[in-house]
């Protein structure tokens, strides 16, 4: 069983990706218009609110990142379908490269008038990441949002106590670990972005580059 596990599903890569996810959420909030681009629930709620008030400009504003997220899921699935059986390069590495290109481009876009474009790019990036990296040591998880991880962590904690199951406890600790690293990424993102501005997003490229390189290991 251990020999068949992919590097992309290891706890280490999950922690690195959680750092990136937290960093991106803080980045868009601090310097790109006070929004969270990782998860789309808030955008969908605000979309519905502005539909009722017929504020079509705001409807479009909140619709665009949702559509970008949908596009990211579709692109990720197409990459998987086309490159899943390639031996030299894992299909998940291609999604990471696409994330790198998008974030590199976002860093060149100035603050203010291009914030919407950057938020759309980051919504696309987060969709790629959440779709490509869905398993950690056989358990479902997410690296760009915490709600599901928090539920799974607490559920496993309860079951570990009730059933005296050490495996459940380890699962719980791994989920809480991912949440902790998401928080660390958010804190680092807030600190660095407030100091260095829009180009701070390039820090995430370093984390993604580490993930891309690590996946060459079997």
UniProtKB/TrEMBL annotation:
Superkingdom of source: Bacteria
Keywords (A to Z) from UniProt: Membrane, Transmembrane, Transmembrane helix
Membrane spanning residue stretches: 12-30, 59-79, 117-133, 175-193, 199-216
PANTHER family documented for this protein: SLR0142 PROTEIN, UPF0700 TRANSMEMBRANE PROTEIN YOAK
Protein name per UniProt: DUF1275 domain-containing protein
Organism lineage: Bacteria, Bacillati, Bacillota, Clostridia, Lachnospirales
């Amino acid at each position: 069983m251990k020999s068949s596990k992919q590097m992309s599903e290891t706890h280490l890569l999950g922690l690195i990706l959680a750092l990136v996810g937290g960093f991106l959420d803080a980045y868009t909030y601090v310097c790109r218009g006070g929004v969270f681009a990782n998860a789309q629930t808030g955008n969908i709620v605000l979309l519905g609110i502005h539909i009722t008030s017929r504020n079509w400009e705001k409807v479009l504003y909140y619709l665009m990142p949702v559509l970008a997220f949908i596009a990211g899921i579709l692109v990720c699935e197409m990459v998987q379908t086309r490159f899943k059986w390639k031996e030299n390069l894992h299909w998940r590495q291609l999604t990471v490269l696409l994330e790198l290109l998008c974030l590199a481009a976002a860093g060149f876009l100035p603050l203010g008038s291009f914030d919407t474009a950057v938020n759309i790019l980051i919504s696309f990036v987060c969709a790629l990441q959440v779709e490509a990296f869905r398993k950690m040591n056989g358990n479902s998880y997410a690296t760009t949002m915490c709600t599901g991880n928090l539920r799974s962590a607490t559920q496993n904690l309860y079951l570990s106590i009730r059933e005296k199951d050490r495996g459940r406890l380890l699962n719980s600790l791994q989920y809480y670990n991912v949440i902790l690293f998401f928080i660390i990424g958010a804190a680092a993102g807030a600190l660095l972005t407030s100091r260095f501005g829009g180009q701070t997003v390039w820090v995430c490229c370093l984390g993604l580059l580490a993930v891309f390189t690590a996946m060459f290991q079997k």
